[in-house]
Amino acid sequence: MKKTVVILTLCICVTFIYAQQNTQPRQWDPRSTEWYQPVPPKVQPGVGVQPPSDAIILFDGKDLTKWESTRRGERGNRFEPAPWKIVNGEMYIVPGTGDIQTKEYFGDCQLHVEFKLPLSSEERGNSGVYLQSTYEVQIYEGEKNDELYVNGMIGSLYKQKGPLSNAYTKNGEWQVYDIIWKAPVFNGDGSVASPAIATILLNGIVIHNNYTLTGHTPYRGLPEYTPHGRMPLLLQDHGAEVTFRNIWIRNL
After folding, report:
1. CB of 223 within 8 A of CB of 217?
2. Are residues 70 and 27 in the same domain?
3. In what order do the strands lie in the sheet with 100-106?
């Protein structure tokens, strides 16, 4: 009887010890959660107006070779040359000549655009930066916003979302957009697999923080998505002599 009790007690103790061991946190080897490939590419950050080393320079004050008109020639099979002008290293909209677009197509990207609005203009410096030719980040004179709807003011994702703050300085001064763009992805049937997402800074101030777009940015009607792939970056001619400089982009 005593022997049986001793054996039973030993079994209970072993079972208890085993259970205790199984409930203890696993002791991970730190090396099991480390990896060494792939190694991120080295990128030299830009200094001042110098862009990062891996940036695609879209405009550096020299020419418009990276751009073309959105208007097609007489035969309709190719776009006309970009009709805007360069003065002292700055690119000016020539009002009435139409929008321009990049010859290269883009998707996910980091975009840097510097722009300046005229001191006085009937159109109040109206223009826009269109990601993938479709989604407008508004450029508009920002000194008199009490006269304009919020989702159409400077820094707005046009007709969708007003900016978190107004970081515009003054007409005649350079303004800076830095845009982190996650392009929309579409399923084979045209439905949205993942929507577009934008983080935007104006003059170093976050004005859109990881905002999810509900579609394009129409003047009339509601936003909606139409399936597309990589598309050109577009700058809008809205009848005012807005100026641009130092435009670069990084594919992400």
Report:
1. yes
2. no
3. 79-81, 67-72, 100-106, 231-235, 127-131, 135-139
Structure tokens that stand for 152 in this block: 């159409």
CB atoms within 10 A of CB 197: 16
Q: What pLDDT, in 10s, does the model give residues 48-66?
A: 778 998 999 999 999 999 9
Looking at residue 25, its pLDDT comes to 65
Distance of CA 110 to the CA centre of its chain: 6
Amino acid at 191: S
pTM comes to 0.86
Residue appearing with tokens 């930066």: 129
Do 139 and 196 share a domain, yes or no?
yes
Average pLDDT, rounded, for the chain: 89
Q: What is the CATH number of the domain that holds 91?
A: 2.60.120.560
Confidence band for 123, pLDDT divided at 50, 70 and 90: low
